[in-house]
Prior knowledge:
CATH topology of the domain at 7-114: Aminopeptidase
Helix content: 25-40%
Distance between the termini: 38 Å
Largest sheet: 7 strands, mixed
Structural class: alpha+beta
Amino acid sequence: xxxxxxxxxxxxxxxxxxxxxxxxxxxxxxxxxxxxxxxxxxxxxxxxxxxxxxxxxxxxxxxxxxxxxxxxxxxxxxxxxxxxxxxxxxxxxxxxxxxxxxxxxxxxxxxxxxxxxxxxxxxxxxxxxxxxxxxxxxxxxxxxxxxxxxxxxxxxxxxxx
Length: 161
């Protein structure tokens, strides 16, 4: 398979349905090795929240594109110093898009004067964040906005020298 060429752009509310589909596909296919299927289905089948488009507009959300198709996205809640999401379509995964999306959000965070970022990493994503310099603080439970509880690794990264 040829290495894909990605482009990044600021996401808009109109991107919400495509981004939500990437999220659902990623949960169902890339988390399988770390979570029970029933839990993944509860997590992935959460309907697109009405507020998701507004969250995209209010937060720093970057869309990863191949041509005009959204194949990944990442979200920064700057007020909470939190990487809220990095999702890549399983069909576009393992080609560096996740790293590009995360690096873009880290650049935004530095420009905003943030000195540290946190992430609640899914168990399968913890090695990805560790490779990007995030340090595990502890294992915990993350509760999604729909009330689904998943095991996670709370991680942090210093953005200063």
